[in-house]
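fyi for ur records
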Amino acid sequence: MYQQGHAPLPPQAPVKKKSSKLLGCGLIALVGLVLIGIIVAAASGGSDSPSSSTGSRPEVSCAPAAKAPTTKKAKGKRAPRVAKPALCTTASGDSPNGPAAQPQIYKGRGSKVVRIKDGGQPWLVSLAHKGRSNFSVEILDAKGKDVDLLVNAVGKYKGTVAFNLTDGLLSDRTKIAAVKIDADGAWAMKLQSPTAAPAWEGPVAKGVGDLVLRLPAKSSGLTTVKAAHSGSSNFVVETFTDDSSDLVINEIGKYKGEVQMPDDTIYVSIEADGPWLLTKS
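which gave:
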């Protein structure tokens, strides 16, 4: 019932609720745009800026593998073998599997079999002996088999030799497990990278005894070497490229002559027991 003196209120129109359909559609559209943005970013492979992730792999650069040489034998040469692929290195000079091999130093007295590390790599071997009797140095593979005789001298010795300089010297750079030393006195041995060999910068190189020389650039064209030796025992000069070696001189005692240096020579090994002189032109 109505109170007296007041007009009755008109009936109010019912309030309409807002539809949730429009809101739902907007949310769906927004989520769709976000998903499309993520997919496009992933497909683009990232931006040009360097990645800040500490777990990223180092950039690796590899020289192309050398072509397989022929296996035809020639007089005075060791038959070249099929070249291995080039060693991949990072910008720091390390291999992708770890840092480059470090120099190894060993000392002792008398005969000993020295187990070495990273025997599959090329090594420059500097040796010294203070005994009076035989001093011989051989390299052995993992089965204990003699692979090569590096030094065979009597009494005091000081010189530098090498192994695994080229794929053609040993069968695909044989992995050397140990160095067998036969000595009667104190000795020292240092293994280091062949890049530590003295550079043959000018036309003349000279020395006494065994030595390995490094050419600053590979030889090319007609290059000759005049050689002289005044020792009384072996005089051997051998050249090395990436995949082969050449025995250019193999004499005993005094020597004087001229030979041709093969193309692409990188290292020159001299075996001598006295003073020698090499002149390239």
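The first strand starts at residue 60 and ends at 61. thats all i got for now
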